[in-house]
């Protein structure tokens, strides 16, 4: 990897840091701010412009907008492959990033129809943004450095969590004790805040304009095989995918469906589903159960999100540094570590949090979990340690998924469909998790997370083990072909067909095999 590759990785990460510093802060407080603007209880003049008469509906507008976003991201992922193929990764990043700006700007003065329209727009752009991001990351990463680059990007992205959580902690800490101010976000403060966040998001889009298009690094990206013909001469065969026979719009979608039919991608989809359901838990459920358990001060919501962000940053930074080693040792160890951390978190949440805290406020005297021990449940160390492990475990899964996709699908016509499938299943699971959070009690949410975590971890390990064995076999076989100093070879690359290039050899290798 040269300096230009590293520059693109840093620019991509910094652009996402700015964009998602604005967006993550918006997600954290949008339910409160939207409810304050639309609620009849927070407006002196009932029936004023934009004010709803139903308080319950006003409280749910923010949640409904989140569901719309996830739904549109899931649907848009199928179209995003074609858009990235036609427009290119760079301008796909810029245009879709601007759609995030539109949604944030809608909350400067939120109305029901503007919030929902903005959610549809953002969701459509979200699929394109993440598909293009995955392609840029893979294009600028060698096979050996894929773990490092994905870890660095993840580290820079998750720094955005810190910005939103610090604001929430500061606001709730200063206003704690005034119930009206906690329930009703000041309108003027809302206008100023989202104007600033809109400007920050615009800066992120401007940074993304400096991403330089670059061809995928060739290191480790060729597919090779060794064949032995009837005369005992060894043939080295390199196969390159044939050029697109369809229009790029349809070719990209066809590639995605073909990829989905493979065994490896089907197994990985189970892992994608778990990361989506778990995404809903840490971004929506965990902060909610902390905030609705009245034994905790309100500012614990911001503090919990801060520790989640620190866990994400620690995981991304650590795996970025150790990225080259994880490729050799195996990604399964890191995923298993994330699995253990998440199981610890789910156990602590089950023992120390009320089952109904997911759906409503829990009085201080009723604030006990399955253990029935209020003193342990209210311990802030349990909340913060669990939050950190939750974020660290999430980083374990996502960084290794990025890394595995990067080495398994290195070419441009494969990386975009792979990332689209990743975000599609993740978004579908997050959307389902969002809706089930309003129906199921906390213990059933945890049961679903445990079951998906077990199956998703096993499926990831199976794919990783098979890929590791295949790579070891391929490397040994290709090494044997060059051990004879007198042998010489050149590579003929043909579209769609195999070309055999004879190489003199004293040994007759095994029958033909393709890797």
Number of helices: 16
Principal-axes shape call = globular
Alpha carbon gap, first and last residue: 25 Å
Q: Could you tell me the radius of gyration in angstroms?
A: 25 Å
- The total of beta strands comes to 5
Order of helices and strands: HHHHHHHEEHHHHHHHHHEEE
How big a fraction of the residues is strand? Answer: under 5%
Rounded mean pLDDT score: 74
User: What summary fits the major beta sheet?
Assistant: 5 strands, mixed
Uncertain runs: 177-182, 217-245, 488-515
**Structural class of the helices, strands and pairings?**
mainly alpha
Helical fraction equals: over 70%
Which features does this protein show?
single chain; 515 residues; mainly alpha; 5-stranded mixed beta sheet; disordered C terminus
Short description:
The chain has 16 helices and five strands.
Describe this structure in words.
This protein has 515 residues and is mainly alpha-helical. It is 70% helix and 4% strand. The protein is built from 16 helices and five strands. Strands 1, 2, 3, 4 and 5 form a five-stranded mixed beta sheet that branches. Helix 3 packs antiparallel against helix 4, helix 9 packs antiparallel against helix 14 and helix 12 packs antiparallel against helix 14. The radius of gyration is 25 Å and the shape is globular. The C terminus is likely disordered.
Helix-strand blueprint:
Elements: H1 3-38, H2 55-87, H3 89-106, H4 112-139, H5 146-175, H6 179-183, H7 187-208, E1 223-228, E2 234-240, H8 248-260, H9 263-292, H10 300-321, H11 323-329, H12 332-352, H13 374-377, H14 380-408, H15 412-436, H16 442-480, E3 493-495, E4 501-503, E5 513-514
Parallel strand pairs: 2-3
Antiparallel strand pairs: 1-2, 1-5, 2-4
């Amino acid at each position: 990897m040269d300096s230009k590759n590293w520059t693109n990785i840093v620019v991509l990460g910094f652009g996402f840091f700015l964009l998602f510093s604005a967006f993550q802060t918006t997600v954290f407080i949008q339910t409160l701010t939207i409810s304050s603007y639309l609620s009849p209880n927070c407006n002196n003049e009932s029936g004023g412009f934009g004010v709803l008469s139903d308080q319950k509906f006003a409280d749910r507008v923010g949640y409904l907008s989140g569901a719309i976003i996830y739904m549109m991201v899931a649907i848009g992922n199928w179209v995003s492959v074609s858009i990235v193929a036609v427009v290119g990764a760079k301008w796909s990043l810029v245009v879709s990033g601007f759609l995030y700006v539109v949604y944030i700007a809608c909350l400067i003065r939120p109305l029901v129809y503007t919030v929902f329209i903005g959610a549809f727009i953002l969701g459509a752009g979200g699929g394109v943004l993440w598909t293009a991001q995955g392609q840029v990351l893979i294009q600028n990463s060698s096979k050996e450095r894929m773990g490092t680059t994905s870890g660095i990007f993840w580290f820079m992205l998750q720094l955005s969590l810190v910005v939103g959580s610090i604001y929430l902690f500061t606001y709730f800490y200063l206003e704690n004790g005034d119930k009206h101010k906690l329930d009703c976000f000041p309108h003027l403060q809302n206008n100023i805040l989202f104007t600033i966040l809109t400007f920050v998001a615009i800066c992120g889009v401007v940074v993304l304009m400096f991403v330089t298009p670059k061809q995928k690094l060739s290191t480790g990206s060729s597919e090779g095989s060794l064949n032995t013909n009837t005369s005992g001469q060894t043939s080295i065969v390199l196969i390159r995918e044939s050029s697109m026979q369809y229009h790029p719009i349809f070719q990209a979608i066809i590639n995605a469906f073909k990829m989905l039919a493979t065994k490896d991608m089907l197994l990985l989809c189970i892992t994608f589903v778990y990361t989506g359901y778990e995404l809903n838990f840490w971004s929506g459920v965990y902060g909610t159960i902390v905030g609705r358990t009245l034994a905790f001060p309100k500012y614990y919501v911001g503090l919990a999100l801060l520790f989640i962000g620190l866990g994400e940053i620690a995981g991304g930074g650590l795996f970025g540094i150790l990225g080259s080693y994880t490729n050799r040792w195996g990604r399964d160890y890191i995923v298993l570590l994330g699995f253990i951390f998440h199981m610890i978190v789910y156990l602590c949440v089950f023992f120390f949090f009320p089952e109904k805290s997911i759906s409503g406020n829990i009085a201080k005297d009723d604030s006990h979990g399955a253990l029935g021990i209020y003193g342990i449940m209210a311990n802030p160390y349990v909340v913060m340690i669990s939050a950190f492990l939750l974020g660290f475990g999430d980083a374990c899964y996502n960084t290794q998924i990025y890394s595995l996709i990067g080495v398994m699908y290195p070419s441009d016509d494969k990386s975009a469909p792979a990332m689209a499938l990743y975000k599609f299943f993740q978004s579908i699971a997050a959307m389902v998790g969002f809706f089930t959070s309003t129906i199921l009690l906390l213990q059933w949410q945890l049961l679903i997370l445990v079951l998906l975590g077990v199956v998703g971890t096993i499926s990831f390990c199976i794919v990783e083990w098979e890929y590791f064995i295949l790579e070891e076999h391929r490397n040994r076989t290709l090494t044997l072909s060059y051990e004879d100093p007198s042998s010489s070879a050149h590579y003929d690359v043909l579209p769609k067909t195999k070309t055999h290039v004879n190489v003199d050899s004293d040994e007759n290798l095994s029958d033909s095999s393709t890797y």
